[in-house]
Queue: 2 jobs
Job 1
Amino acid sequence: MTILDTIIQRKKEEIAAAKSETTVEQLKDTAFFERNCLSLQQSVKNKSGIIAEFKRQSPSKGVINNSVQPLDVASAYEKFGASGISILTDRDFFGGDFSDILKVRNDIHIPILRKDFMIDEYQFYEAKSIGADVVLLIASCLSPDQVQEFTELAHELGLEVLLEIHTEEELKHFNSKIDLVGINNRNLKDFKVDLQHSVQLKNLLPKEVLSVAESGIYHIDDFFYLKERGFDGFLMGEYFMKNADPAQAFQEFSLQI
């Protein structure tokens, strides 16, 4: 069983427990459910393209940074030009929580991506209820039909969709309603990083599709390598979060691009 298989198995248990505690109707009755979502698609086009991430830990790296607060980091990301903010909400494997989005939503005025393993319709109502603007669909967790159905549901709720792929086979998951396509530089099954593979995969996408390079951007040179090869967006977390002061790390990075 791969790490991804283990995560998905645990996610199913989490969702079942959440459904028993809070109904969809109760989620619809929350304060953020009626808010108009912000467009990550437009923000990537008009700003730096960086989707800066708040991430405490990961299965491959262990604890990255447990000492900073979401609002301190997210505020700096916005101040210094991020197009959007990605916030992990998976608790067991990434140390995230819904409250991390709730703590920043009222103070942040750029799109927020709920980054999690979306495998059930219920999670889309959750995302809307906590103030997310965008959801991540991971092709390796879903069938093409599920991606289609979840994209339609997301759009019904006003959410945008970032589809994550890693292989040429997963291009079959793309459909014309997808808002952005993320290409994960890191293989979720063995966690190896290959930027050149991502570039090759990007070149197989329709030219009009906004492409986002995800994960494994460890140096400023990696950023420029991907940007020069046509990527529109860059999902970056560990690069900033591994520093004692992610806000300062992001500020310094932003001055170089």
Note: The longest helix spans residues 3-21.
Job 2
Amino acid sequence: MTSVSPGAGRIWTAARGPLLIGVIILFAAVVITLLRGTGAGGALDPRSYRPEGSRALAQLLEQNGVRVELTEDVSSLGDATLFVPQPNLIDPARLAELQRTAAAAVVLAPAGGAERLEVETRQPGCPLAAKAGAATMGGLTYKGELSCYDSTLVRFGTVTVIGYGGIFTNRDIDEEGNAALALSLLGQHERLVWYMPAQADVTQQKPVSDLVPDGWKFAALQLGIAAAVLALWRARRLGRVVPERLPVVVRAAETVEGRARLYRRAHAADHAAQVLRQATRDRLAPMLGLPVGDDPVEEIARRTSRPVTSVRALLYDDGPVDDRGLVALAADLDALENEVRKG
């Protein structure tokens, strides 16, 4: 019978290629994620030159005498316009407090809109935005004291709510009357507080899984499936040992030598000693007229005139054995078997 199960060395040799590829892919994903997350450059960030950023608007405001202050912690507003591009991340009570203390507030797409309209060029339809004229508007609609652009921009008191933020971005600010409308909304006072909420004000934290792009999630799922298939392919097959016909006839002496080398390489002298003792007991039992598995010590002692303790120690001792002791044990067992056969 031959064992065909792969050893640890073969498994490692087969698996190290896919494992290395997986590590490289994971490392590249981490690097790309870190690079994307470094530096200024979020959506509606007045420092960002990206299409979704608002650097162009910030420069226009400064050229028109408006001081832009990007902050994560609003301590005092005073005579300033407050711009909140992410109101849904802020506790409603905190947001209401900020709107009350600001001289004017512009809130972008807060939750609670009536319906969503397609983004397109729309006419103002109100005196508030008459000077700006047509603008790229849409998104959520709201109800207010003053309604413009098909209710996608409304004002109640000093608070202006707008349903779409494209007019504030580098990509769309030069379209239609977007720049004029953005300047009229955010340039109401000489100071503009551009509020990105601090950790203490954030109430809806996204789980880490939401920060991972969908493409990376799909790639991770594919790698997991591939690893599972590889493990099933290379895993040890459970079940009974299946005998195989050898392609050539192997002499018994060669088989013995081969197994002996395996025992020696594995430093399994103790196990080899137990195998020799068990084989001797199995061969002696039929000679003594005993069933295989019975204790033959008493009968062997009677036939050979050896002490019972000596025979038992020779056939059942399980103490540690080195290579020299293993050779001596084999000779003693052979001698005992010859005495029983002659007796």
Note: The CA atoms of residues 274 and 318 lie 7 Å apart.
